[in-house]
Amino acid sequence: MPDAADSTFYVTTPIYYVNDAPHIGHAYTTVVTDFIARWHRQRQEDVWFLTGTDEHGQKVLRTAEANKTDARTWADRLVENAWKPVLETIDASNDDFIRTTEDRHVERVKEFIQGLYDAGEIFEGSYEGAYCVACEEYKQPGDLIEGTGEFAGQQLCPIHGRPVEILAEKNYFFRMSQYTDKLLEFYERNPDFVQPESARNEVVSFVKQGLQDLSISRSTFDWGVTVPWDESHVIYVWIDALLNYATAVGYGADDEKFRRTWPADIHFVGKDILRFHAVIWPAMLMAAGVPLPRKVFAHGWLLVGGEKMSKSKLTGIAPAEITDTFGSDAFRYYFLRAIAFGSDGSFSWEDIAARYQAELANGFGNLASRVAAMVNKYFDGSLPAPAASTEAEEALAAVAERAVAEADAAVERVAPHDALAAVWSLVEAANGYITEQQPWAVAKDESQRERLATILYSSAEALRVLAVLLNAAMPKACARLWESLGAAEALGALAEQPLADAGRWGQLVPGAPVTKGDALFPRLDA
Ligand code: ME8
Known about the structure:
- The protein contains 19 helices and 18 strands.
- By secondary structure, it is an alpha/beta fold.
- It has a domain at 349-501: Isoleucyl-tRNA Synthetase, Domain 1.
- It has a six-stranded parallel sheet, sandwiched between helices. The chain has a four-stranded antiparallel sheet with strand order 5-4-8-10. Strands 11-13-12 form a three-stranded antiparallel sheet.
- Bound molecules: ligand ME8.
């Protein structure tokens, strides 16, 4: 197990556009980031988990106008009624929430950009090109696709499938072309900076073609951060947005906090915004002399019906539609377990229902309820003291220890699906152990009380290890399990159980009150 870092483990989600309400694609990124944050907290590291909203730019402005209101009112409404509530729906444990319209951000963005201007990194020029408002990005001619059907004769954005607009503007440019070689050198020296491998390859081959200077201001609308030396321009929304990762942890304002927290350990993003994070953002930081983040991890698409899920194509699903039926723990578990992190993955109601029933209700949940029920039935709800172990107990303890090590190694390579698969080896071993040991049969023989005690104590120990290992994925269910094991009094709060110590067998204290509560995961009706 790696040593706790000497500085803060800092993880981020993208800051999401407030043009619309969150769907499960956004929740997916946030759940994975939250899982990683909680895991590292349980490793007893100092963790900072940031999320927030991206509120400037043309896309948000146009949505506000279409809804007959101003951008600020619209953003306030979406943040309070949609983006902040969804964090509760999915049990996110973020330490901060940044909005790009806050002064703590806006003022620092102005200073950052002024610094680049003063250093000669920014010049005035003009540009004409194809702009996708949904991406908030100029596209290269080679990126575009030919429209068909209603869009016949038009050029479309390859991500949104919607026509681009030709924009011609006089504006300010960042000398990004100067960073081509520096970035290639950086990727070379830091082979894990962009992950997974496919994302790294894409970024490297993109940068190898040579970077162009980047237009960093707009003058045709004013919903943005004003360019400090030319008030007729606002700063390009992506430059403004990327800086959130620094401004939120004290860049230019609280040096002590910034030094402690920066650089970010992992920026989690979808692959749609990989280049912004793996090319533009490091180039900006190099230009300003600020250390670069340690890792950008770009995950795949969540597909619904085989297509990238999106509100505009009416495949968008709100997280609450799923949590209302399955609960937040099952929502989190499903997305962490069912999708190989980094690859695309399909969501379907059948799939989540099948996993819920098999893995949560019949697997983990049933294990917890049968152990609690038997301790109540045979030992009046008081955890019995174990007698001598047999090979079966030693084998179960060994599975537990291995599950801890394998899950931790999987989290280290940012593979939550593998981490949960490793933990499930213990769920299965514990259920198998009980089936083989048949405590209900042993209970019939009064002379076997000690054997019965050992079986139930060992089963409860497996549950203790599972509560610690699954807490990052399913905090609510694990808190209830911890309570039902009567573990808090002797061992302290679940969230404070050190991961490194979780596999040490025999921590539960005999005599602890074991209670039968409601099922952790009630079975679904047919
Ligand atoms: O791009 N599958 O915000 P955004 C998986 N404001 N993930 C998905 C997804 C899907 N179908 N749909 C969305 C922006 N996501 C900028 C970011 S950061 C400085 C600025 C997730 O609201 C995924 O993480 O369009 C993707 O990168 C992000 O939402 C895009 O959110």
